[in-house]
Design a protein that fits this description.
By secondary structure, the protein is of the alpha+beta class. It is built from three helices and five strands. A five-stranded antiparallel sheet has the order 1-2-3-5-4. The protein is globular. The termini are far apart. Its EC number is 3.9.1.-. GO terms for molecular function: hydrolase activity.
Length: about 120
Amino acid sequence: MAEETIFSKIIRKEIPADVVYQDDLVTAFRDINPRAPSHILIIPNKLVPTVNHVEAEDEAMMGRLFTVARKLAEAEGIAEDGYRLIVNCNPHGGQEVYHIHMHLLGGRPLGPMLVG
């Protein structure tokens, strides 16, 4: 069993977060340290530590991350100009919280994917 994370507590509303979307499969909330004018984290309600732990049974849930991202981009007014979706995996990928999550970033030009 994967270890519970701060995201699990946000899903259950045990700690405060600026939740902008929640359904039976995913929860989305504003990042507390935004890197762009719009920076929302979209997470599955099921604890899946990394992309390496995604199973075939998780496909509907993982697809929901993308459909919710599209809806939120439209609601944030960033869909037309464009936005970035990022999923980090493990330390070299920059993952900090081991509950898979998608970053939705936009509201300004974001520059190149990687620097250096």
